Amino acid sequence: MFSVPDEEDVVAAATALGLHIPEEEVVHYRAALIVHLNSFNEFVQARIEEDKPELLYPSRAPGYRPSNDEDPLGAWLWKCDIGGSDEGLLAGKTVSYKDHTAVAGVPLTFGSYVMEGFMPDFDATVVTRVLAEGGRIVGKNAMNGFVGGFGFGGTIGDYDRPKNPHNPDHVTGGSSSGSGAALAGNEVDISFGGDQGGSIRIPAAWSGTVGHKPTFGLVSHFGIGFGSDQSIDYTGPMTRTVEDCAAALQAVAGYDGYDPRQGRLVPDHMDVLSGLGDGIAGLRIGVLDEGFHGAEPDVTEAVMQAVDTLASLGANVVKVSVPEHADIFAAQGALGAEGSLGLFQTGFFGLFTRTYYPASLIAEVNKMWAADADLLNPRTKLQYLAGTFAKKNFDGRVYAKAQNVRPTYIRKYDAALADVDVLVMPTVIVKAPRYSPPATYLENVIENLSTAMRPAIYNTQPFNYTGHPALAVPVGKSEGLPVSMQLVGRFFEDPLLMRVAYAFQQAVDWDDVIGISV
């Protein structure tokens, strides 16, 4: 049943929409609304078959919340044991997911207490494909969620702070913070993170692991949500070795009819592994000048030593420049504000596309937003406010321009990539900062609203906006903390990035580089 609006409710709703309904008309609008609501109610209650994605391996063991003793790094929100095929690319590999990915029968919280108890009844495509390729799903990892997190320093958030295995006094990076900690702690082989501005590559960089943000659309985003604009949101694998990352990408990449963001260029499958060991002799490596601006000296030194290693393997190294690299933040910021607000207003998976809409998940998130929106973290609230005032003051022009200038930025990188095969820069220009919790809640809010995280996303965020594939590769440690280089390539040349990374991995003492025994 539904709540029947009275005349005051009708007037209030109209006012919120900017509509004025004369007093003598209100009773008629109310009567017509009740007819519509009755029709909606009958439709919702009707027993009409609803098609939904096939659920592979539905017999699943119940999971549990691990204790502090079992989870000393604070990396896990849930442990489970779901087996898939007996053979495949990922046979024998353990796999986990950032807790924004639907796994049927396993709680889905988006890092928020208020979502506790919700259990999806469907699998995200990256879950289905992992099971089909023999992966064993062992749990969900902590994340910077709806209410915040601890990926970038002392901030507001639910659950524990994922600790950096290299130095627990330092952060692991967000938003896929638990994935980075679990991998670096040797607790899982592969974890699928989410990346809206660097949220796979930053924790990979700060935890000394490999993290891949695929070409836009290459890996289906169906069954995954975060609340940000869908045109900058990605999922991808994080691992300790390049070969595991390549296998995970090959297992899940390709067209999926449930993800409307995938364009006609997305292939059905992608061969990542067959050319992995082909070497890099003759490849052209472009060192992006702007990518080193503001970098800590030891970060620059470590990345350039890695570039020297690539040169010793036969790659031709040149310097390149893309001045727009330093200016792209404004464009994505403009896109993100109204894009996030749009999802908040329309429903967690948006509108207007012909696909499967997981009604129970959409309803649960919408109820949370309606009843507990004040629990959202300050940065998210600021996004919604910025989007609201952008629409009010610029009548949609901000979002429209942010979308419309995207091809201009893409062409700038494509021009550089016409002369070289791969761009190289630090993944993050600074090492993992020390965790220092603010003394008061107000200080927490102020830190959330600051631009302190800008150095972390300086080199990662541009490629969420453009859609180019980007791979974070550890290159060593300084002061006990990992340093990472980022490889960026042409659209759908993700296998080439893996090939370059694998050549580097084979040329060095990998255990020494990542500081973790593999």
Gyration radius (Cα, Å) is 23 Å
Oligomer: single chain
The helix content is 25-40%
Distance between the termini: 57 Å
Count of alpha/pi helices: 17
What's the number of extended β-strand segments?
Answer: 11
Order of helices and strands: HHEEHEHEHEEHEHEHHHHHEHHHEEHH
What fraction strand?
A: 5-15%
Principal-axes shape call: globular
Integer average pLDDT: 93
Poorly predicted tracts of residues: none
Sheet/helix structural class: alpha/beta
Which descriptors would you attach to this protein?
518 residues; alpha/beta; 11-stranded mixed β-sheet; 11 strands
Description:
- The chain has 518 residues and is an alpha/beta fold.
- It is built from 17 helices and 11 strands.
- It has helices at 7-16, 23-45, 125-132, 177-184, 201-207, 242-252, 297-312, 328-346, 359-372, 378-394, 397-404, 406-419, 441-449, 454-457, 461-466, 494-507, 510-514; strands at 76-82, 94-98, 136-141, 190-195, 210-213, 234-239, 284-288, 316-320, 422-426, 470-478, 481-489.
- An 11-stranded mixed beta sheet has the order 1-3-2-4-6-5-10-11-9-7-8, with helices on both faces.
- Strand 7 (284-288), helix 7 (297-312) and strand 8 (316-320) form a beta-alpha-beta unit.
- Helix 6 (242-252) packs antiparallel against helix 16 (494-507), helix 8 crosses helix 10 (378-394) and helix 8 packs across helix 11.
- The longest helix is centred in the first third of the chain and has 23 residues, at 23-45.
- The chain is globular, with a radius of gyration of 23 Å.
- The relative contact order is 0.13.
- The model has no long low-confidence stretch (mean pLDDT 93).
